[in-house]
Amino acid sequence: MDQTATRNEVIWRALRLRCPVCGVGRQFRGLTMRKQCPHCGFFFEREVGYFTNALIVNYTITCLPILFIIAPLAYLEVFSVRVLLTAGLLIAIALPILTFPHSKALWLAFDVLIRPPTAVEFDPHPHEPE
Ligand SMILES: [Zn+2]
Asked: How many Å lie between the centroid of ligand 1 and the Cα of residue 130?
């Protein structure tokens, strides 16, 4: 891992959907995550079932606007219940889909910050997967 990368840089790389280790290689091709970084060879799926915890990140991202926007508006009775339920439902359906790649990238970035990659997690000859 780039030892000079700060926490903010690693998170910024994730938000740009770049490799958290080198910051150059793209993690996704469309909505499909690559197996490894095409630049440094870092394997993104660090173990079997690795991205299951990305669901927690996705769920958190989805809940935040409901918790901090919809719920206060409901409490203040600014809009009707029907409008707020519709807005909440649209957020609950659309946001997980829209933030799917970023959820996985952020999960990977958090994990790389806590548990830096070892040499065995890199392909010595990175290539562009088909
Ligand atoms: Zn990389």
From this structure: 17
CA of 20 to the centre of ligand 1 (A): 7
- Pairwise CA distance, residues 69 & 117, whole Å: 38
pLDDT in tens, the chain (130 residues): 556 789 999 999 999 999 999 999 999 998 899 999 999 999 999 999 999 999 999 999 999 999 999 999 999 999 999 999 999 999 999 999 999 999 999 999 999 999 999 999 998 777 665 4
Residue 88 class from Cβ within 10 Å (0-12 exposed, 13-18 middle, 19+ buried)?
A: middle
| Residues 6+ positions from 116 with CB-CB distance below 8 Å | 1
Question: Is the separation of the CB atoms in 30 and 100 below 8 Å?
Answer: no
What region, left, alpha or beta, does residue 4 occupy, with left being phi > 0 and alpha being psi -120 to 50 degrees?
A: alpha
Centre of ligand 1 from the C-alpha of residue 29, in Å: 14
